Structures are given as C-alpha cells and as structure tokens.
Amino acid sequence: MNVLQRIVVIEDDADIRHLLLLCLSTLGAFEVKEYPLASIAIKDLAKDTLPQMILLDVMMPEMSGPEFIPLLRKIKGGADVCIVMLTAKVSQDELASLMATGADFVAQKPFDPMLLPQLLQQYWEVHHGAV
After folding, report:
1. pLDDT at 131
2. Which residues are annotated with the PTM 4-aspartylphosphate (predicted)?
C-alpha cells in the first residue's frame, strides 16, 4: 500500500497556510512542509525530495498555481506528484479550467480544517493507494 505521508503546502496567505499546516500535521499526522510562494517552492523542490502531494493556492504573487504546475512536472519525478489546487472560485468553467492546467483535484476555499485531512487521505487511497 502506498501511504500518503509527505505533503507540501504552497499558500501566500499566512493564516491559511498555518491552518493547513496545523490540521494536516496534527489531525492528519502528515509530514508537512510549507512555502509562502510558488517561486520559492519550485527552487527548493528542484533540489529536494519531492512530496507525494502538493496543496497549491491558485492566485499568488510572482507565480500562480497554474504557472507552477508545468515547472514542477519538468522536475524528475514531478509528474508523479499529486496536485490539489485550493481556490475560492467555484464555477464549473473555472474548476474545469484549473483541472486542465494539470491539477489532480480542486478543493474549494473555505475548507473545513477538521475534514480536510480525511478528504485528502480518501482521495489518495482511491487514486494512488494501490501499489
């Protein structure tokens, strides 16, 4: 069984980033690394062990989530990373557009921090759990 353990959070809003870190590391017992900007994250990820999953904000300064995805996919092993986009945009067209950028899943803000770890774990088990 391929167990979800390593998650990276890329979110420019410090409050949301810390909430994600808290709920994922405490409730989900995941190993979580955080970045305030995608431009910083891509540099680190290019020379570090890649996570299994990235929670990626859509709109950030310097580099958006959709701009980040193709850069990640070019890194060795980057194509295997599950990307969950976080957005307040809720129209079907916007969600479809985000999925077309290469996201594996789109989670809407605001999210329930008590349920998010379970939701991510369930998604992982369905799509990546079997080896």
Report:
1. 45
2. 57
Distance, CA of 125 to CA of 100 (rounded, Å): 22
Can you tell me whether residue 115 is helix, strand or coil? coil
Tokens representing 129 are: 């759990």
Question: What pTM was computed for the model?
Answer: 0.93
Which of 120, 109, 107 is CA-nearest to residue 4?
120
- 88/57 Cα distance (integer angstroms): 10
Give residue 73's identity as a one-letter amino acid code. Answer: R
Name the residue with tokens 């990640």: 72
pLDDT tens string 92-125: 888 889 999 999 999 989 999 999 999 999 999 9
Domain of residue 82 covers 6-124
In a domain, 130, yes or no: no
In a domain, 110, yes or no: yes
User: For residue 61, what are the contacts with CB-CB under 8 A and spacing of at least 6?
Assistant: 12, 37
Number of domains in the chain: 1
Residue-wise pLDDT for 55-71, tens only, equals 999 999 999 999 999 99
Angle in degrees, 0-180, between the axes of helices 65-74 and 38-45, rounded to the nearest 10: 10
